[in-house]
Design brief:
Oligomer: single chain
Number of strands: 14
Strand content: 5-15%
Bound molecules: nicotinamide-adenine-dinucleotide
Shape: elongated
Structural class: alpha/beta
Length: 453
């Protein structure tokens, strides 16, 4: 999709073909033309409607608002967004876009229903899902199971994990009963557009995520996105549903962190712009995938020490740096989580082998190592603990490293085993703390991988 000229495209339904012929449409280079009903004409729905029509699909927009429906039917965009006004007027001229309050009678002809209604914040901060429920009921009541193929119902609104399984599917099943699979195919496909570049983003998304019941691709969604170049992920509903929460929270953390550093610099008479340019130039460690994956807590001789010092610097300067302030607490919470994960199924006195003691593999730095903290907690909790880490040679530990190790784990020397012993004994639990557990041939009833959650 993405080309505005259309030649020889395949029409999925009679109505879509009829429209394509009526406008003497040069069809898409590849892909199917569809008849798509878009519920909710806000920023997301209007952008989708404009871009789908631009791609040659026939689109019916649906909204409760009289003004929005009337504006779309006049070929006028109800929102300001670069490119959208022209796309609307083109789409109206070629009869590829209309709007209505009630699309029930049209659903039989449609190939796809795209749900883009709002999910505003409720008083307690959760998303209000009542519009999602309402539109789902409308679709379920209007769609008929005697269709040549199920109506693909695509949810694009941001919804909490579990919404499709626990709210949407029960509504469809409640109304359609045993005919549900013949009537609808439910898909979750989060929207990643940014207002002000929404149309560009639609055709050049950072990624395409499609959630389905079994995590397998949907052929209709594959056809919809044919020709769009972006990384694709087919997942179950929940992984797809949480994506937007993760992305938007991360974007917010980026803004918040940059501003904390910015105001600290301003207060200290440091040029925040220069600091930012230096920071952003580092695409190996700073602005990269490095460090950004769920696994072990951070530790070692630098990160905890320097975060603490930055906190102190901000405090001295009278700067509220709430994000920086929360980082060490967050790391401690992760250490508690790791301990709980390891011990939740363990019987008292169980035999545990921890692979990895230093803060990362191929290092013997034990200072503030979260793995050493874990071993220490396991020992104090009464488990029979052995540790395998070929980088640790007790006789070679010195200075602060030695001091930290023996202050926090006095029995270090007795706990260490070599590979031969680790592989000879059997354990109730193997804790892979540094990613090297897989290389060992260890007999363990249970394995917990802390290196990669
Ligand atoms: P919006 O509030 O601008 O528009 C929602 C529209 O849905 C409104 O026009 C409303 O009248 C309509 N609506 C509500 N109930 C309806 C019903 N029963 N039938 C038909 N129409 C109905 O919302 P938006 O900004 O377009 O966002 C929609 C969803 O997409 C939200 O979940 C949002 O979080 C998500 N999202 C938004 C953006 C963005 O940049 N705005 C980006 C990605 C995802």
């Amino acid at each position: 999709m993405g080309a505005s000229g259309r030649l020889g495209g395949r029409c999925r339904s009679y109505k879509a073909c009829e429209f394509a012929r009526a406008v003497n449409a040069t069809a898409l280079d590849e892909g199917d033309l569809m008849y798509i009903v878009v519920y909710g004409l806000g920023y997301v729905g209007l952008t989708a409607a404009a871009c789908l029509a631009k791609g040659g699909h026939k689109v019916l927009g649906v909204d409760l608002s009289d003004e929005k429906v009337a504006a779309v039917n006049r070929g006028v965009s109800p929102i300001a967004e670069p490119g959208i006004e022209a796309a609307f007027s083109e789409a109206r001229q070629s009869n590829l876009l209309r709007a209505t309050h009630d699309p029930s009678a049209e659903l039989a002809e449609a190939d796809m229903a795209m749900v883009c209604v709002g999910t505003p914040s409720s008083a307690d901060g959760t998303h209000d899902l009542s519009y999602i429920a309402e539109v789902t009921r409308q679709i379920a009541s209007a769609v008929k199971p005697d269709r040549p193929r199920p109506l693909t119902v695509v949810y694009r609104s941001t919804i909490r994990p579990g919404t499709i399984d626990d709210l949407v599917l029960p509504i469809f099943r409640g109304i359609l009963g045993d005919t549900v699979d013949a009537a609808v195919e439910v898909v979750y496909n989060p929207e990643f557009l940014r207002e002000s570049t929404a149309m560009k983003d639609y055709f050049n998304p950072p990624k395409i995520v499609v959630g389905t019941g079994d995590g397998k691709p949907s052929s209709t969604m594959e056809a919809l996105y044919e020709g769009i170049d972006a990384p694709r992920f087919n997942t179950r509903f929940r992984e797809a549903e949480i994506t937007k929460f993760v992305d938007n929270s991360w974007h917010a953390v980026k803004v918040g962190f940059a501003n904390e550093i910015g105001r600290l610099c301003v207060r200290l008479g440091i040029d925040a712009g220069i600091v930012s340019r230096i920071f952003l130039s580092d695409t190996k460690l700073n602005v990269s995938a490095y460090y950004l994956r769920p696994g072990g807590a951070f530790g070692g001789s630098c990160l905890p020490k320097d975060v603490r010092a930055l906190q102190h610097l901000a405090g001295e300067a009278g700067i509220n740096a709430a994000i920086v302030d929360s980082v060490l607490r967050s790391n401690d919470a992760h250490k508690h989580f790791a301990f709980d994960l390891c011990t939740r199924d363990l019987t008292p006195g169980a035999r545990v082998l921890v692979v990895g003691l230093a803060f990362k593999s191929d290092s013997d730095d034990l200072r503030e190592s979260p793995n050493l903290d874990l071993v220490s907690r396991l020992v104090r909790a009464g488990y029979e603990v052995s540790v395998y880490d070929p980088s640790i040679v007790p006789e070679r530990l010195m200075g602060q490293n030695l001091g930290y190790a023996y202050a926090n784990l006095p029995s270090l020397r007795e706990l260490l085993v070599d590979r031969e012993q680790a592989e000879r004994d059997s354990y109730d639990l193997l804790v892979d703390a540094n990613g090297q557990g897989g290389a060992l041939n260890v007999r363990a009833r249970q394995i917990v991988n802390l290196h990669s959650l």
